## 1
Amino acid sequence: MLVTIDFNSEEAIYIQLCNQIIIGIATAQIREGDNLPSVRELADNIGINMHTVNKAYGILRQEGYLKLDRRKGAVIAVEVDKYNALTELMSEMQVILAKAVCRNISKNEVYELVDKVFEQYSCQERKGGTE
């Protein structure tokens, strides 16, 4: 798994790391059951603090993208609770769509963007994934 951190970004490093791992799962670059590097190893590879990686792994665990195992370390284990996922997505979309409205982006333009972005992920063959 290749992780690239933009140290000039306004987005926190742990959020960038979380997002890249989620995108890696969605694009099947990393799959259910795959081990992620240890906190120390990933921190050394990227050149960031171990606590930052630990925070990202903790958030991904809380959000149901991975499990932490004492013997295996961080393992991709996507827990699917569709109702909670839809509720969380709705909450996140409210802010995104409010920004779109403030910038005079039409509903049709949003639909086109959603289709374009979703196509990047829906065409990927994922273990256990269905459309």
## 2
Amino acid sequence: MTDTQDSLARAARLSFWSGPVSPQPLAGGLTNTNCLVEDRGRKYVVRIGGDMIEHGIIRTTELAASHAAAEAGISPIVVHAEPGAMVIDFVEGRSLTPQDVRDDRYLGRIVELLRRAHRDIPRYFRGPAPLFWVFQVIRDYTHTLEAGESHHLPMLVRLLDTADRLEKAVGPIDLVFGHNDMLAANLIDDGKRLWLVDWDYAGFNSPLFDLGGLASNNLLSPCETEQALELYFDRPLNDEMRRRAMAMTAASLLRETMWSMVSELHSRLVFDYPAYTAEYLGRFKAAMLAFDALDR
């Protein structure tokens, strides 16, 4: 039995169902398996996955964040949870693409949704809340790569030195409750409003990390990136904020690169992680060239 088949069988056995169900796999999901289930005339998304310590994913934290995001009106409602499984109301809509994120018709709405998430979710979050500090994540990934004797080891010292430089450039931060995985696919348009889903990496962070992730994961142009920052902070950018934001955007790309390097060692999913690593390493190098040009 494959991992996907095992996850579908696990989803079918959940105690929430009124009777036999037939889970159907959904595309996406690089840290869990997602499937669609119909029961009692309603549709649900089931997320199957355990803790992933190598990525800092703790499912009880994800569940607490998902509940809080639902109460804040940011995400659909969690209707049931068991160890290693979460059942969420299905949203009739479509996942966004990077092209959508770059569209003026979406960018402002996404930034406003992020601002609401950052502000409102802490009001509803229950239990110990984590800190997602990207530079500590990078340092921890380094230890994981060393322990796994990754073939990327020769470049780690240079990457860590660069991360230290970026951390100093970011400087003191304001704390908000971050999503910390701003991929276009985590945004859903139901025709009336936007939803933000998948809280695997949720935790307190600088708002610059979500904004940087939004820019870097969706290939926003420098003009579009500045537009998003000015919409979020409701003021024109000065040179200091521009430099700090560029540093965090580069850090978000480095973290994504190292996430993929670690996944090359530990993930059992069928996915071309080496190609993903190469793509994001290229994006990171380009971001550092832009940062260096600004720093001259």
## 3
Amino acid sequence: MSRWKPNTTVAAILEQNGRFLMVEEDTTDGRRFNQPAGHLERGESLIEAVVRETLEETGWHFTPTALVGIYLAERPESDISYLRFAFTGTLVRHDPSRALDDGIIAARWLTHEEIVAQQSRLRSPVVLESLHDYLQSARHPLNLLHHIR
């Protein structure tokens, strides 16, 4: 009997001048928009993972300051589920010369309205769900998270 295990992912919700940092990426479902996001790797904390993924996908360094929410997304067409931890924080600096991860077309700054207009091209419904939580000021302290090494 196989044991069900959701994939653990992290995402960054970063706003600057009324626009949100998104990535346009090639996926098996075609071109999609997502927040800077990716999988937790063995040995790293959730915070380390979101900092790494954001840098790899956008070239932006940032410091997480709050947890926006935790989302369990099930894909009815498969046995795959994702447990996503969405963070927000402070942008530190951008490294425009940094090569982005394979599959990333570009980092884009989009307004909330532009993201909603692209709803059919979002990587997951969690993108909009977490963005709405962010816009409603959902912020939880990072000390909720513990990494026991």
## 4
Amino acid sequence: MIDLHSHILPALCDGSQDLETSLAMARIAVADGTTHLACTPHINPPIYHNHKAGIAAAMEQLQAELDAHQIPLRLVIGADVNMNPDVMRGLKQGTIPTLNGSRYFLLEPSHHVPVPDFLGQIENFLNAGYIPVVTHPERLSWFNSHYEEFVEAAKMGAWMQITAGAIAGHFGKTAKQGAERLLLDGYVHIIASDAHGIKQRPPLLSEGMEAAAKLLNNPDEAQRMVTERPQAILDNMPPDSVTPALAFQHSVGNAPDLSRTEQLTPTKSWFRSLFR
């Protein structure tokens, strides 16, 4: 399995605070079946001023420790990027890392306040050639009252990442119901752990995948959420080259080819035009 959202790097945000915790988290992930894990500390000024160079250096140090301790986990770079007006500039300037250097990046909306012009910002990222992976929408306090905005964002081309622990019930009834709603409506692309530690929010994916498989009565689709689609992100594949989320499996068969570098900056979002 591939986990594209974790806070395993020590002392960069509110996740692991020391090397021992990071190593223990890595062992938990490997025991659960994870082979690749994205290091995605928060970028959320003025609270967390992380940047690509610092994250890369910390990741290289942790990877060296994993190798020295013979923990078979491959780390890749990323960030959990707070949704604000400066994100586009950071992406273009290279101070905000995408997932493994791909066109995909984790985008975290505000937890408690609806994001102004949420869909307009999503469209701007898509038009610039980036694919935002919206993190844990089911855990946002404004998710249910703005559910159709998240559906529209997915229809436009954003990807939705739900939390394994939320599907398994560890974040409470409301988050579980929100995750199940997105799953049953077919708008979930990937499942990730959003791991922050060992006992609280550990890097476990299998329980979320199993819960999704049971809910959907579709083990193959649940498996794709932790294997095929995360791998496509790591490989920087265009979204139409992988099995689409359930809601789109009969809707995007004729999407244009985005595999060539010069096509990564479209003048308008073809994703949105598909659903008009």
